[in-house]
Amino acid sequence: MPKIFHIITYGCQMNQYDSSALREYLEIRGHKWTDDVQSADFIVVNTCAVREHAQNRALGRIKGLVSAKRKNPALEIGIMGCVAQELGEKLFEKIPELDFVIGTDQIPVIAQIADGTIARGIFVQTRQNFYGVESNAHINSGRVSSFVTIMRGCDNFCSYCIVPYVRGRERSLPPDRIIAEIENAVANGVREITLLGQNVNSYDYGGLDFPELLEMVANIDNLARIRFVTNHPKDFSEKLLDIVEKYPDKIPPAFHLPIQSGSDNVLHAMNRKYTSEQYFDIVDSIYKKFPDAAISTDIITGFPGESEADFDATISAMKRVRFSGTFSFRYSVRQGTAASKLLDNVPNDVKIERLNRVISTGLEIAEEYSQNLIGTVQNVLVEGKSRKNPGKLRATAPSGRTVLIDENSANIGDIVTVKITDAKIWILWGEYP
Ligand code: SF4
Questions:
Q1: For residue 154, which atom of ligand 1 is closest to its CA?
Q2: 167 and 92 in one domain?
């Protein structure tokens, strides 16, 4: 009997992509999506284990859902994603009412449970040959941007990170499958694709590297824009910059390039495999080719052993690079990682105080980045109506900044040229020049 299902997603773009693909995978098997979690009889929670906070939030939500199950025993509730992979059986001990626990390589099993062809239970075996469910990413009608996964897993073992343990070893998807998925998305009206991988720069399919794949994608007709995340500084190449330069209308010079720390001591302890000088060399080569490039980053404060001098190096790095955006986090131990064996010796209040300094420095620099765009002419992709600003359309600049333009001045999916007239930290206003 078809299920009425809902998926709740926590975490990164990879999880959003998996949830979206799972939705289509279930729909093509006859199950029916509902936006309303209360009316679903089959609920899947896709979880993130990167930070303890995200994990606790997801588990809290599941506990809330489980109370509804007491009133409606037919309701099936399962958990998928990194927390499912990491905790496995322990989840049944924590939440006995759960029906299924599905690891990162076992997503197709969810359809079999929904179909009733296999029993409920726990499925967390890793499968190195798992490349995602065989479906094209779900395309909501009217959607302009979509994600496409080009690789799964990670081989880098940054010492603080759980991802290599829960998502397995790095696997690059075949280019023909990636191209077919993007062509299908474009045929359904998608104009912008974001290529996803934990480290897109190490994409390697039978010798085909990431810049070569990017060039193949850039040659897809009617695809207006291509973005890609995440870049790892240790694998970032000049060859990639050459391809970005070759397709200026399609590939904006916007690079998410996590630095994590400006201190070589901390970078070494994090097992990041680059020094701050090597990072700055990459930044210099980006700005040399693209003076207006948007370089965004991730920073962790309070990593074990981080001294005040180490932290000062991080603030100096932020000021030197002038990041267009900074995503910052306070270090928290993830059990099972190499860093969990280090003495977590930065007091919590110091971690928070440093985090606040990173946030305020990041906002100051981001605002300056946006202010510098006033008076420039930008090609922006119209994504839809602005919910918060009646009468305005929401578009995206090459940098990724949101640009508000007058409604009725363009159609959704158009790329239009506007002059930036005003700016706040994350939002720009544009008018026809
Ligand atoms: S590159 Fe490092 S931080 Fe990113 S997923 Fe892999 S191990 Fe985690």
A1: 6
A2: no
147-194: pLDDT as tens digits: 999 999 999 999 999 999 988 899 999 999 999 999 999 998 999 999
Domain presence at residue 139: no
Same domain, 367 and 382: no
CB atoms within 10 A of CB 95: 16
Tell me, what CATH number does 426's domain have?
2.40.50.140
CB 165 near ligand 1, within 6 Å:
no
How far does residue 426's CA lie from ligand 1's centre (Å)? 26
Residue with tokens 């578009």: 395
Q: What's the average model confidence in pLDDT over 274-297?
A: 98
Assigned domain for 315 exists? yes
Judge whether 128 lies within some domain.
Answer: no
Residues paired with 431 in a beta bridge = 419
- Tell me how far apart the terminal alpha carbons of the chain are, to the nearest angstrom: 57
Q: What are phi and psi of 5, to 5 degrees?
A: -120, 160
- The answer to whether residues 196 and 167 touch, using CB atoms and an 8 Å cutoff, is no
Q: Which of 84, 76, 78, 163 is nearest to 124 (CA)?
A: 84
Which residue, among 172, 250, 185, has the nearest Cα to 218 in the 3D structure?
250
Total number of domains constituting the chain: 3
Is residue 185 within 8 A of residue 144, CB to CB? The reply is: no
Domain with 420, as residue range(s), is 377-431
∠ CA 380-249-388, rounded to 5°: 15
Q: Do 163 and 119 lie in a common domain? A: no
Is the Cβ atom of 12 under 6 angstroms away from ligand 1? no
β-strand partners of 43: 6, 77
Number of H helices, E strands in the chain: 13, 21
Distance 155 CA to ligand 1 centre (A): 8
For residue 91, give the CATH number of its domain: 3.40.50.12160
For 32-42, the pLDDT digits (tens) are 999 999 999 99
